[in-house]
Amino acid sequence: MSPREAPDRRKTLGEFRVNGERREVAYEPHRTLLEVLREDLDLTGTKHGCELGECGACTVLVDGVPVLSCLTLAQEVEGCAIETIEGMADKGELHPLQDFFAELGASQCGYCSSGFMLASKALLAQNPSPSRDEIRVALSGNLCRCTGYVKIYEAVELAAKKLRGEPCEPSRECTHGR
To answer: Do residues 165 and 149 lie in contact, with contact meaning Cβ atoms separated by under 8 Å?
Structure first.
């Protein structure tokens, strides 16, 4: 193998802000954010799905914006605020999206859940009162093969309501009364 054909084995020492913590990691420049998160930082909640940017299982937030980590080079997001599913809970308290996904059964096998929740969190940060159609559009880049989506949409609607400070109306979907 000639030097021109040899793979690039140089390491880049990168600094990332992941889930509110400053992290340094040495990685090869061709590696994706997904690979660095899962393999170097041991944040396995971000899922390895299609590797084509079609399923959304690898969705993370970069500076609050949903990004497909399988298509993003790690070096592109150095210094940015990266949030994974592991960073959604606050001091041990589940985020309302996590809470309602669990309560409503919006997660069946759970593989797609982290991507859906992070995309939903970004939506609710931009639009605290989304319509069902706006939720559907915001989550259209995320695929689920188990749920049929209705419970996912309901979980987002109830989380939005809770985040707005509105009481949860007692119904079969919402039994917390939070």
So the answer is: no
Evaluate whether 74 touches 32 at the Cβ level (below 8 Å). yes
Please give the structure tokens belonging to residue 144: 């689920």
Q: How far is residue 115's CA from residue 111's CA, in Å, rounded to a whole number?
A: 9
User: Which amino acid belongs to residue 114?
Assistant: S
Nearest Cα to 114, choosing from 36, 22, 31, 37? 37
Bridging pattern class, strands 21-27 and 12-18? antiparallel
Contact between 17 and 23 (Cβ < 8 Å): yes
Provide Rg for the chain, Cα atoms. 18
Between strands 81-83 and 12-18, the pairing is parallel
pLDDT digits (tens, 9 = 90+) for 102-123: 999 998 888 999 999 999 999 9
Number of C-beta neighbours around residue 106 at 10 A: 27
pTM: 0.88
Is 139 within 8 Å of 154 (Cβ atoms)? no
Write down the H helix ranges in the chain: 33-35, 96-104, 113-126, 132-138, 150-163
**Are residues 115 and 59 in contact, defined by beta-carbon separation less than 8 angstroms?**
yes
Domains and CATH numbers, the chain: 12-86 (3.10.20.30), 96-163 (1.10.150.120)
